Amino acid sequence: MTSLLEGARKLVGRGSDIGARVQALDEAVTAARGRLDDALLDRASAVVDRAAERLRLSADHTVVALGGATGSGKSSTFNALVGLELASTGVRRPTTSWATACTWGPNGAAELLEWLGIPPRHQVVRDSMLDTGREGKDLEGLVLLDLPDHDSTEVSHHLEVDRLVRLADLLVWVLDPQKYADAAIHDRFLRPMAAHRDVMMIVLNHIDEVPADRRPSMVADLRRLLDEDGLAGVTLVATSAKDGTGIDELRNAIVARVKDKATTRARIATDLAQTAAEVTAVSGHARAPKLTDRDQGELRAAIADAAGVPIVVDAVQKAARLRARRATGWPVTSWLSRLRPDPLKRLHLDLGTNGRDLVANARTSIPDANQIQHARIESAVRDLSDKLAGDLARPWATALRRASTSRMPDLQDRLDKAVGSVDLGVAKPPVWARLVRGVQWILLLAALAGAVWLGALAVTSYLKVDEPSTPEVGGLAVPTVLLLGGVGLGVLLALLCRVLVGRSARKRARRAERRLLEAVDQVAEELVVAPLAAELEAYQVTSDGLRLASA
Fold first, then answer.
1. How would you classify the pairing of strands 62-68 and 170-175?
2. To which H or E segment does residue 29 belong?
3. pLDDT over threshold 50, residue 355
4. What is the DSSP string of 306-350?
5. How many CA atoms lie within 13 A of 100 on its CB side?
6. Torsion angles phi and psi, residue 192, rounded to 5
7. What CA–CA distances, in Å, run from 316 to 28, 353, 416, 502, 509?
8. Mind listing the pLDDT tens digit for each residue in 189-217?
9. Other Cβ atoms within 10 Å of 382 Cβ, number
10. Rounded distance, CA 214 to CA 218, Å?
């Protein structure tokens, strides 16, 4: 299709937008697949294919189709225009379901006739050598078709007429004075094709059979019927293939269309505009809505709550406080904190590198979302899709709602994995806590040194051995200072660090919350927001394509 459309742009000439309009309708149809009715899109796609193929073919030929009912004189008109008895008329008309084609010009139109589906035995090349003067040259580039009777009892005739009516560049409907008001042609062809009035002509044939004084009123009555069909201004010619009345006028009208080389583009443009209008009637005219971050606020909050982010953040704060106190507390008593369970490890979170690798594919112990949380998510998703679908036509609104819930079954598992993969940043205590721990151990060693020293002095005194001199500081023995200072300062430092521990724990909890929300937002983006954005993008492409195709 792409190559056909590129070829279409080249063949229609520089400055023409027909190729771009064909491309636009093709993109609109592709984007609307799965959202709008397939039968409607199939018809539109057929128009795209037909337009692209016709533009790829000869731009030097104009296909003019003569259509009419049995007895309208259509084949006689065909012969009069050709100047030869090519089409069988009256009782001699064959029952074949194929059209007859006559082409003018030395270049031929073999590929075009093949595309039209005209068998070789029904093709005639009107060699210009058979013509004299300017008459033959004026018709050069014309491909004239004599269609089967549209009111024939043969189903194959109906099918052939319908097929070629869609392919012809210019349609010439030949009517009979006795049946020009017949509803068959008005209801089946003229009224439904009112949009194609610029590439249509009406011929009132057998005018010689109508008294001269009644002809103006009959032509006026037919014009009235055509106006009611929406064909105001369409070319209307009264002819008689029998005596030649009006044939020159009809021929000149056709020659004018063939010479300006615009009929093919006009027919395609009309087909595109009509098809785009049909699709737009279903797709709607509303502007494509925008999906903003503000619209997603409640959705992301609901998903974060269902993912257990508040639970994990609380566990991070408690774990950070516990680990920092363990690092900064007095070493003699801080080991007791190891007996307390770690909040994060109970949730299978922050198990260290080896631990994360071990449980990479396992679920965390975060509780699954409860019914209230599920209901909140469903409500947020519904509200978001309903807001976006507010002004859209029903098919697109339905597509948005369907897209918003299409990935919901995967949500819980994806959230669990996302939360489990986040580095919560509490594996190691802060640097200042590690420094405090070093100081605490120095104080503990000092206290132990003082205790040992005092013990040694006590043993010496008990054994009545001469005691070595003991240095003093401020009137106190150094070993006493070491013992009391080590213990006292260690306990005091542990108590003072509790303020820093609480502040550090809150800071780490906030940092972990940001990381968790980023991970949860990525899941929400992939499973809910991205499908909605894809539908909005499809609607935008469809709307833009239909608008350009209608231009």
1. parallel
2. helix 18-32
3. no
4. HTTHHHHHHHHHHHHHHHHHHHHS-HHHHGGGGGSPPHHHHTT--
5. 24
6. -65, -25
7. 50, 17, 16, 12, 6
8. 999 999 999 999 999 999 999 999 999 99
9. 14
10. 6
Segments making up each domain of the chain, as ranges = 60-260, 297-550
Per-residue DSSP letter, 139: T
pLDDT tens profile 290-325? 888 888 888 888 888 877 778 877 777 777 777 777
SS3 content of the chain, % helix, strand, coil (to 5): 65, 5, 30
In whole angstroms, give the CA distance from residue 256 to residue 77: 18
List alpha helices for 83-233, DSSP H. Answer: 110-116, 135-138, 155-167, 183-185, 215-228
Phi and psi dihedrals of 80, rounded to 5?
Answer: -65, -40
- pLDDT single digits (tens) 70-82: 888 888 999 898 8
- DSSP, collapsed to helix, strand or coil, labels residue 123 as strand
Q: What is the pLDDT of residue 13?
A: 42
Nearest CA to 58 out of 126, 142, 122 is that of: 142
Label the pairing between strands 123-126 and 235-238: unpaired
pTM: 0.76
Contacts of 159 (CB under 8 A, 6+ apart): 97
472 phi, psi to nearest 5 deg: -125, 155
| Nearest CA among 542, 536, 32, 544 for reference residue 295 | 536
Q: Does domain 60-260 have CATH number 3.40.50.300?
A: yes
Contact 551, 23 (CB under 8 A): no
